Amino acid sequence: MTETHRYALAQRLLHWLIAVLVLLALGIGMILGFLGFDGTREFFGKTVTDALYTTHKTVGVLILVLMLLRLGFRLVLGVPPYRPPLDGFERVASYTVHGLLYVALLAMPILGGLATAAGGYPVSFFGWTLPGLIGKDQALSERLFSLHGWVGWVLLGLIVLHVGAALWHWRVKRDGVMARMSLFR
User: Theoretical Cys-Cys bridge with 120: which of 68, 74, 82, 136, CB 3.0 to 4.6 Å?
Assistant: First the structure.
């Protein structure tokens, strides 16, 4: 596969960095979601619970920044063509899942940040407290956190579809699709 049929190195690095960060954020988010603040604190203690919340927020902000950078690269550098081309169903499924992944990966940190601010909590990023973009409103915070959680489940489903399709192309079809985003030859 030639370089013209692969994403640029910067795009590939961003893809894999964001993938690792998303798995970390989803893992922490599920712990916090299932146990809640009190349950997490009871199970892990105050120090670990605070670290989990701080890490989750920091990773969320980082994902937002990296996704905006990735979107910029996509607009400037484009998307390499599939060689061989995908069939009709695969093409529609690919564009749909990729589009929804971009929407979800941009919406998740925005919803989380707004929910946090509306709850009166600090939005932290590597120890800095970012300005809350909205005022305290507990009812709004609860709605935004609920939406943040639902988008998290949708994101998880999209990741399963994305990874499943990647494995299908790599191990079953063996059509070179995986090389487009691979860091290796």
Answer: 136
Count how many Cα atoms sit within 13 Å of the Cα of residue 152 in the half-sphere of its side chain. 25
Q: Give the whole-angstrom CA distance, residue 33 versus residue 47.
A: 18
With H, G, I as helix, E, B as strand and everything else as coil, classify residue 183: coil
Partners of 129 in the β-ladder: 124
- 53 vs 75: CA distance, rounded Å: 33
Express each pLDDT in 144-159 by its tens digit: 999 999 999 999 999 9
CB 56 within 8 A of CB 28: yes
Q: Are 178 and 166 in contact (CB under 8 A)?
A: yes
Among 75, 90, 101, 68, residue whose Cα is nearest residue 8: 75
* Residues 61-94: tens digit of each pLDDT: 999 999 999 999 999 999 999 888 899 999 999 9
Question: CA 53 to CA 32: how far, in whole Å?
Answer: 8
Distance CA 126, CA 78 (A): 32
Query: Three-state DSSP class for 154?
Result: helix
